[in-house]
Design a protein that fits this description.
Elements lengths: L8 H36 L2 H11 L5 H4 L12 H11 L20
């Protein structure tokens, strides 16, 4: 929003405060809508998907996707490791994962 530069200082401050209050109200309304929507979606999920969804919504749960690939700290993944990590994160089947161990038992994660 553009505030007239010819207005008095008091009017400029008043308009700025009104804008700030309006933005806060919109942000609050949006937050409440999102919380209600999340609750309604969560109520419809089966227990295993609900647990996965809750873990994925936690703060910082996706930071590994934006970290620098520093080999000295073990943050570098090759293409296969990256796809495996995504599959594990989203509870998808792993590619080229043997169904049985060399000992004959079934592989599971």
């Amino acid at each position: 929003a553009v505030v007239s530069t010819q207005s008095t200082g008091e009017r400029t401050v008043s308009v700025a405060k009104s804008l700030k209050v309006a933005k806060e109200e919109v942000a609050y309304a949006k937050s409440m809508f999102n919380k209600k929507h999340l609750a309604s979606v969560s109520d419809k999920l089966p227990p295993d998907q609900l647990r996965l969804h809750e873990e994925l919504c936690k703060r910082g749960s996706s930071t590994w996707l934006t970290s620098l690939p520093l080999a000295e700290h073990g943050f570098n993944l090759n293409k296969s490791e990256f796809w495996d990590a995504l599959a594990l994160r989203y509870d998808l089947a792993l590619r080229d994962f043997p169904t049985h161990c060399a000992c004959g038992k079934s592989n599971s994660i």
